[in-house]
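Troubleshooting entry. The earlier prediction with adenosine-3',5'-cyclic-monophosphate gave an output that would not parse, so I re-checked the input for stray whitespace and re-submitted. Clean input:
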Amino acid sequence: MLASGILDVGWLVGLGVGIAGLVIGQGILRALVRLKVPWWPSVAGGLLALGPAAGLLVGAWLAVGSTDAVAFGSGDAPVAARIGWTLVLFFAASTAYGLIRSFLSSRLAQEELGIRIPGLIFDAGRLFLWIGMVFVVIVTVWHGRQVVMQVLAVAGLSTLVIGLALQETLKNFIAGMAIVIEGTYTLGDWIFIGEDEGEVLSITRRTTKIRNRMGDVVTVPNSLVTMGKVRNESRPTALHAEFVFVTVTYDSHPNHVRDVIREAVLEVPKVLREPAPVIRVAKFGESGVEYEAKLWLTDVASAPDIRSDARVQIWYHFRRAGIRPAYPVRDVRERPPEAADPKGERAAALRRLRTVPFFTALPEELIERLAEGATVRDYAAGEAVCRQGQAGDACYVVDAGSVAVAVGNGRDAERQVAVLGVGSLFGEMSLLTGEPRSATVRAREDTRLVGIGSDTLRVALERAPELAVCLAEVATLRKEGLLEAQAALDAAANARVQASSRRLSDVIVRFFRLPADGRPRPPGA
Ligand code: CMP
């Protein structure tokens, strides 16, 4: 309850103006402290420290000196005492707030104790402290419960007006509170906001400031932060992974390369041993095998240096281990215009054909002609070069390895008739007679053959008819060999048929309990 209407309201207004003056004065002094004028900071700093002390003293003198100490809270206390108590309460609260704030901002709290409180929280704290103090003073010292009720009644309207006027500021303030309460980030965290990354320097009621890798400060309004995406590399723990890629030539064994990379990156002091680095084969690239090293670290700000150090270590380790980093290589080779025998097939064929007994009598230029039309082909062990019964349009000379000639009886059995080694000719029979292949010829091991097509052979036969005579002789001999084999196969087949028919008749005899000599039994026996 206000003691005597207008007078008390006058005092109240005076008190408000006084407090506002003090706050403004404090603000001016603070601004002066920040000025670069050499002697100002100390003077202004001193005044700042003296101000509250003087306020407290004056307040105490008014409260206690003008009346007795019991005056606090009593309804009939003189106005001077009430002003005194008001001053005492305000300055005591603001001194306590200042002490707590300067402790929390001190190097001891921030660096030793690790307490880092954003400026936003101090600002909010001061605001609530002042509002709280105003209400406390009005109610306890000035007994203005009604005033408080009136203030609260008009608060709705004033909040609307103030809210509209301070829309942006409030938005940023509330966004700042959300960032702090949600723990999106705090001072010292390494964050990405949009395209900017850096260490959080401050979170104030309006903005968040980060210092990027270039040492520049980026200021982002808090409301923008909460509207966009934030990546915090310091949360949930300080652990952060970085990737280093390196490409190695295909001739190095992947497990060996992974071991060497692991050993190399662990040489970098800021790469953690636990969790251990992970080395993966990322892909088989155009120029080599790409490896991915996942390194764990806590010093996010130094990530580029750590990656660089890891690459340096990998380079030296690779060099010592004989591992070659790969890089894209393009070989541009000009093909010589006269390279008619790019794979050297003709030369190889010529070398081989000169050693074949049939061809030694031929003139050199004819052998060269044969070689010109020849092919050189590789066959795997067991592979069939030609099969019995198929049409044949080429003969072959064994250049390396050996082949087996086998004849079959058209059913399941096959008999090997010859093994032909280096320099031997085969497949000539079909070529000379036009008949199907007389036998199946298979590579016994990995074998290289020089093939001569029928057209090429015909040219040689026309030029050197004696060659036909030689080949015909060989073919006849071979035919004999084939016939013998065929006969042996047939004999074996006959023997098999007889044996199997004997077995069958034995079974029938046993089954019907017939006499073993096959004679009919007398009736009734
Ligand atoms: P051709 O019938 O064209 O195909 C199979 C080839 O096997 C045949 O020609 C001969 O060159 C070869 N040949 C067939 N019988 C024998 C044998 N008894 N000894 C060596 N080579 C043979």
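This one parsed fine. Residues 1-7 have pLDDT under 50 and may be disordered.
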